[in-house]
Amino acid sequence: ANMPEDYPDQFDEVVDFIQATIKRLRRSPDKQTPIFSRRERNRQNAATNVENSSKKGRRNQKGKNRGCVLTEIHLNVTDLDLGYETKEELIFRYCSGSCDAAETTYDKILKNLTRKKKLVTDKVRQACCRPTAFDDDLSFLDDNLVYHILKKHSAKRCGCV
């Protein structure tokens, strides 16, 4: 008896949630993964990330961003400490590493001029390892069955900025 016309706002949110869930399922691996405690998952991910980060840093990059790599960890959304209580899990990707190799001649000149007090600026910023692109939005229901969408929550690509 209650049709979507009666609750248009909720209907749109449910459709968005279903579409986001389908996208997430398409990206997830076909095989079932065993269930581990958070500590075991973090240990496994740390070991995997050490191996992968050295490989990822060399692959498909132009040498200047070698120290800046994409790293991932499996977490519960509640672990993000954004105020959501939920059992939903995600793979959180973040950028880590050094951008010293990305320093240009311009950066060196600015540092030198600042050090010699030829420039008025108090601090010259160094290049830092930051996301250059973000994963798709994350949709989930919290423990109170409230629908949420997180935008720009996880890195997709990293670079020295």
Automatic annotation (TrEMBL):
GO CC list: extracellular space
UniProt feature, compositional bias: Basic residues: 55-64
Recorded superkingdom: Eukaryota
Region (Disordered): 26-64
Location relative to the cell: Secreted
Sorted UniProt keywords: Cleavage on pair of basic residues, Disulfide bond, Glycoprotein, Growth factor, Secreted, Signal
A GO MF term: glial cell-derived neurotrophic factor receptor binding
GO biological process, one term: negative regulation of neuron apoptotic process
Domain TGF-beta family profile intervals: 38-161
InterPro entries for the chain: Cystine-knot_cytokine, GDNF_fam, GDNF_TGF-b-like, TGF-b_C
The family this protein is said to belong to: Belongs to the TGF-beta family. GDNF subfamily.
Full protein name: Glial cell line-derived neurotrophic factor
Species name: Leptosomus discolor
